[in-house]
């Protein structure tokens, strides 16, 4: 059994006092989560941040009502019972994990939080025979349902269509700057920069295994170099390009993939078969990069063709000439 699981309290064994204390703790935690979301989103998505701040205030109000109800029934001392102490109780994702998700995923996570809490209270209330406990859990389920309605109202208030479109555009731009642009630059560098050494080695040796090793080394070396260069070039604070670590991984991985694409065919023992497949892959790679530039980066088709296809073809030709020298 996993550590800590055996020490959790079965929900069925909780008293009414403990159930109410657990609800208070859960409401407090959710309020803090919403405030954290608001803080994380404030710079890039101010309208969504306002929604989460308002939702946190709603959680605080429900917590206040629960505390007043607790005082009336059980006095001033509230037992400290947390979600992790109770077996079967719904758990929240760590905030650090959710913060790396997209804006739409964070909104979905918040809606899931409210839905899970409501469903949990409803199911437990249905199997509770004690009238007072049933009423208490039913009230909590109703409160969570109200949270869902409140979230919809707050989104309508703080996120009109124009604001939502503006934030969606900002999120799309950040995705392009953090992943697509570095990844595309890496793919271009990996595809083009490794052409000369791979095909020079191929035509100089006519040895497919040695050519593959040269290509593998060139691709991995270029990937590591591009990844570190991208990560060190800009911390993203002023340019809004996002995490340097994410950009570094995107650039490094795509650089290595770009180089490996035309190195892998040389695992085939027959030289001309491997070379023919590699040349076909190079042709596909170069035109695919030009298409991605035109589609995702708003680069004109002819400019992308000149930069990628013509440039890559010249490097490819240089590799063959050097290999045959």
What distinguishing features does this structure have?
325 residues; mainly alpha; disordered N terminus; 2 strands; two-stranded parallel ribbon; elongated; Ferritin; 11 helices
What can you see in these coordinates?
- The chain has 325 residues and is mostly helical.
- It folds into 2 domains: 9-159, Ferritin (Up-down Bundle); 175-324, no CATH class.
- The protein is 77% helix and 1% strand.
- It has 11 helices and 2 strands; from the N terminus they run βααβααααααααα.
- The chain has helices at 16-41, 46-74, 95-98, 103-126, 131-158, 161-193, 195-205, 208-233, 244-261, 271-296, 301-324, and strands at 9-10, 86-87.
- A two-stranded parallel sheet has the order 1-2.
- Helix 7 (195-205) runs antiparallel to helix 8.
